[in-house]
């Protein structure tokens, strides 16, 4: 359906101060406050729409504007190509309704059941997992219990109020602990502190759960997983969930890194493949010398996956990790016949405030 101005649409009531957003697939409606993005308004209304970076660069919040108009007063919709904008694609994390709108977007009902909230936690364990990856385990203070879906992430709240997102590397556990795999970003404030100074007993304020990278159980299709570096964290949580469910769906797991030491839980993944006949695990190294020395497959992870599965029409695909890997994978996998609505991903972009600052500082974001 083509995009039309609201004035021509008597079916939607026009209210200049409080725009209403209608989801065409379910008929649900919610109001958007002044200058609120569609995603923020949906979250306030308890409706889960897809997102990951919240900065306008990853594209996981892409939806179609069916009626009405939106603008982008914060960040430009970097993740949308020209042709996508011509087809009325919008980015829910950046689009601000200008009057009532109707959109076609994927709703993720399973995520709606768990409202996100703040919690005070204490570090109960800290361990180096790889030369630049720190594993940290947090526990909420007192009798507080946290809930989330496997694959979701949390925000660490810094003293100045800024947020730093990290995927939770397991589903909720009986002991209440939250596992994170934190890669040290050179020049990064929070991850440098974690790498150099964080110790058992330190307190962290978190907001949890966030994100829509969660297991989709309404499918019988085989699954492909592609993780780059610490992108293994949410993949681990989702795979463990499916193993616990006893799924018969095949799961093919690809994990890419530069050197073998970066595949910090390769033995765990090898164990899954040894124990469950429907699971395969393929580690891939981008450094040719490291690949030769370790006997592991050499190359780029998305290329390795496509060599093994050139036609993705019959798969569900989950991927998480560095933005460049996710962006390359998105394009190539859709070109290999993967329907876009069966591609689930978290792109490990820097936090929205840093993205905002970088986008304000330069015209393009490529190479982030
Ligand atoms: C959904 C999601 C899940 C994630 N999960 C994980 C995970 O499980 N594990 C993991 O390791 N990472 C994960 N990440 C990435 C992680 O959030 C970032 O690496 C982290 O926020 C970096 O924080 P920092 O304070 O150390 O770095 P920041 O201080 O935010 O800096 C990051 C980089 O940007 C540069 N920078 C900062 N400000 C500017 C500026 N104004 N102009 C130019 N450059 C600037 C810095 O020099 C640095 O290189 C995830 C990201 C997302 C979006
Ligand atoms: S572009 Fe909107 S969540 Fe990443």
Report on the structure:
By secondary structure, the chain is α/β, with parallel strands linked by helices. It has 3 domains: 6-107, Beta-grasp domain (Ubiquitin-like (UB roll), Roll), CATH 3.10.20; 115-210, Translation factors (Elongation Factor Tu (Ef-tu), domain 3); 223-347, Rossmann fold, CATH 3.40.50.80. It contains 10 helices and 19 strands. A 6-stranded antiparallel beta sheet has the order 11-10-13-8-9-12. The longest helix has 14 residues, at 232-245. The radius of gyration is 21 Å and the shape is globular. The structure holds flavin-adenine dinucleotide (FAD) and FE2/S2 (inorganic) cluster. Flavin-adenine dinucleotide binds at residues 52-53, 153, 164-167, 181-183, 185, 187-192, 211, 230, 233, 346, 348-351, 354, 357-358, 361. GO terms for molecular function: 2 iron, 2 sulfur cluster binding; oxidoreductase activity. Pfam families: FAD_binding_6 (PF00970), Fer2 (PF00111), NAD_binding_1 (PF00175). Residues 19-109 form the 2Fe-2S ferredoxin-type domain.
């Amino acid at each position: 359906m083509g995009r039309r101005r609201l004035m021509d649409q008597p079916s939607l009531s026009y209210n200049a101060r409080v725009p209403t957003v209608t989801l065409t697939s379910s008929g649900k409606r919610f109001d958007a406050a002044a200058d609120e993005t569609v995603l923020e308004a949906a979250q306030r209304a308890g409706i889960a729409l897809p997102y990951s970076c919240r900065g306008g660069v990853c594209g996981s919040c892409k939806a179609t504007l069916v009626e009405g108009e939106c603008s982008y007063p914060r960040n430009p919709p970097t993740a949308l190509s020209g042709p996508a904008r011509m087809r009325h694609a919008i980015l829910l994390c950046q689009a601000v309704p200008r009057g009532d709108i109707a959109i076609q977007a994927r709703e993720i009902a399973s995520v709606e059941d768990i409202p996100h909230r703040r919690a005070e936690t204490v570090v109960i364990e800290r361990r180096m997992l790889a030369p630049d990856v720190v594993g940290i385990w947090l526990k909420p203070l007192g009798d507080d219990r946290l809930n989330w879906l496997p694959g979701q992430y949390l925000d660490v709240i810094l003293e100045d109020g800024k947020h730093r997102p990290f995927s939770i590397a397991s589903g909720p556990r009986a002991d209440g602990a939250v596992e994170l795999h934190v890669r040290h970003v050179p020049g990064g404030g929070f991850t440098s502190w974690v790498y150099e100074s964080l110790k058992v007993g330190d307190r962290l304020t978190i907001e949890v759960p966030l994100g829509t990278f969660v297991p989709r159980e309404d499918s019988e299709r085989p699954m492909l997983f592609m993780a780059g570096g610490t992108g293994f964290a949410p993949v681990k949580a989702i795979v463990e969930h499916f193993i616990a469910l006893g799924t018969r769906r095949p799961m093919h797991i690809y994990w890419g890194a530069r050197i073998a030491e970066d595949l910090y839980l390769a033995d765990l993944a090898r164990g899954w493949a040894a124990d469950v006949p429907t699971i395969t695990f393929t580690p891939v190294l981008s450094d040719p010398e490291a690949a030769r020395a370790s006997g592991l497959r050499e190359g780029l992870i998305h290329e390795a996956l496509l060599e093994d599965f050139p036609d993705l029409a019959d798969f569900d695909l989950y991927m998480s990790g560095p933005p460049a890997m996710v962006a390359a994978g998105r394009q190539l996998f859709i070109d290999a016949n993967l329907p876009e609505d069966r591609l689930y991903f978290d792109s490990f972009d820097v936090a929205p405030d840093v993205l905002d600052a970088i986008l304000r500082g330069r015209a393009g974001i490529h190479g982030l």
